[in-house]
């Protein structure tokens, strides 16, 4: 049987197919944007929280470093001497067994990372009382792959630090929004 499709027709079909795919992609992305969906990231904080002092005893903790990055992305200047202070304390990472295998050895761990936050204004007036924010992740453990599991735990701790930083930003945005509506 002879094919009636010439190279020019085949090329045109491919171009039309690609153009149709691009159109569908554009339509879908516009629909997603239109409904208000956006990727999770740093919230925009209003001008009342554009300057913030940060008080912590764990300056080099990954959560504190990630929080500084997220505050910068949200347009917040962080320096000593500002009237509003975010106090970070009791930063903890705990690891415990949540499942055992048939031999009684650990099969699954859970990591819990938590931090206490408190916000004060001028004259140490409490704007946000002490609040504990935490995140949890679990992972399977095989004792024959210790190096890989150590790396997995390290990556999970990094993700958890970022998650805590974003949670703090969202909490500050909520506090700021509540403060704005009450005025």
In CATH, what is the homologous superfamily of the largest domain?
Lipoprotein like domain
Could you tell me the number of beta strands? 5
How much strand content do the residues show?
25-35%
Instruction: Choose one word for the global shape.
Output: flat
The radius of gyration over CA amounts to 25 Å
Structural class call reads alpha/beta
Percentage of residues assigned to helices: 40-55%
Mean pLDDT: 82
Flag low-confidence runs: none
- Could you give the order of strands across the largest sheet? 2-1-3-4-5
Highest CATH level, the class of the largest domain: Alpha Beta
Q: What distance separates the N and C termini?
A: 81 Å
Would you give the CATH topology of the largest domain?
Double Stranded RNA Binding Domain
Number of domains: 2
Number of helices: 3
CATH architecture tag of the largest domain: 2-Layer Sandwich
Largest sheet: 5 strands, mixed
In sequence order, what are the helices and strands, one letter per element? HEHEEEEH
